[in-house]
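Sequence in, structure out. First:
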Amino acid sequence: MKFIKVNNYEEMSAKAAEIIAAQITLKPNCVLGLATGSTPVGIYKNLIEKNKNGVIDFSEVTSVNLDEYIGLTPENDQSYRYFMNNNLFNHVNINKEKTFVPNGMAQDTAKEGADYDARIKALGGIDIQLLGIGLDGHIGFNEPDSCFTKETHEVKLDESTIVANSRFFASIDDVPKSAITMGMGSIMSAKKVLLVANGENKREILEKAFFGPITPEVPASILQLHNDLVVIYSEK
């Protein structure tokens, strides 16, 4: 594990974007594992700028996203497909047919999960997986549990996650109560994992996740077992 502490959110975003850009440069047809939420927005802004300046080329890149809310259509402005289009895909030269997000409208979420895992495997796995971390240690929507779930699966969201995500919705009642999320199998199979966190309130969970015991009660703690993990953290 490589732990990098930076001074602020802007430095965190720039450093993470440099690592992802290096991956694209080294392997133009790489598979990027992408994340949503407020933390990676700055990273995507940096990547858009690099693309517009000719530093990186997304034309051969494939992407797979971690998760999606159940019950939201891709056109819903709170869906993660909409988020990715708005914050990255619409602004770079990526082929949208090669950008994959779990289908939150799937009638059979178990089949959708199995198909999603099969797609990732068929792509040759993820070259670099971008992650954030929740205050309860969740990665993707893998919430604290009694065991680690390997497969992409449906999950009921913890109250703390619903409260944290309510800032994106008109009211907390509008926040979906479940999601479909990539499991630990595909995340841990990624060749490289890049986790970013900012804010003083993340210090405690980072200490638990990366300097405490490995336990499904702190889902991110399993990343201690990954052989190429980079954590970038800013308190501001």
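Second:
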Amino acid sequence: MPRGRRLIACALAALSAGCGTVKQTGTARTATEQILLTNAWDQALASVDFSPLAGVPVFIDTQYIKGTIDEGWLVSSLRQAMLSQGVLIRSKPEQALWILEPRVGAYGTDSYNWLLGVPQTTVPVTLGGLPAGTIPEIPIIKKSHQQGIAKLALFAYDRASGQLVWRSGTQLAMADAKDVYVGGVGPVQSGSIRQRDKRVGINVPMISDPTPRLVAPSTPGAAPPLADKPQEPPDLPGASLKLPPSTADLDAFAP
């Protein structure tokens, strides 16, 4: 074989040896949806003040959040928030002085889409002279807006007497993600779950509003916090403490 042909053959062999494929898969839920929901939950949970429960042995009754999507994240993040504020979590009800009961009023996503242009159209067979089929969408400006919403409330009661001792009030929070296409170019991404807006992978200045957070109104006339704790401000969001445990009670449940 002439030398030139041998070089060409070697080059083709080298190129063919360098070919490969990338396997791509899709999960049942998109990452965006999961981040929207867990971010909304984290923001709502961050509005809860657990300091009145600090130093008290507490059992978390999770029966009213079982079956919720991302249940593991909800329970674990709740435990972390309580532990970080000094609450003593117990694994069994009989080991606790108080029982904490969380509940979820809303945990889901909403989606809104807006289009300026020609929507996708199906041409029926009945129109003479025109072939049947589908005309694809021709957008001039297209926008999609997704929201994750979480609503939660918690309260605690004395295990022995069943008396209400604390409540968080209702906490509502939202997280959002936006995608905008202009003339087929995009998406320009924005929203509270994205640190910076992005246009086809390039960071651009932020155009989204700060993450909204709705906090329950304060409850007037809340009882004083636990003994040996600094006095809380009178407008503590939704907090109410009616039955501070005695020192003897706490000693009985000390690990």
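Remark: The first strand starts at residue 57 and ends at 60.
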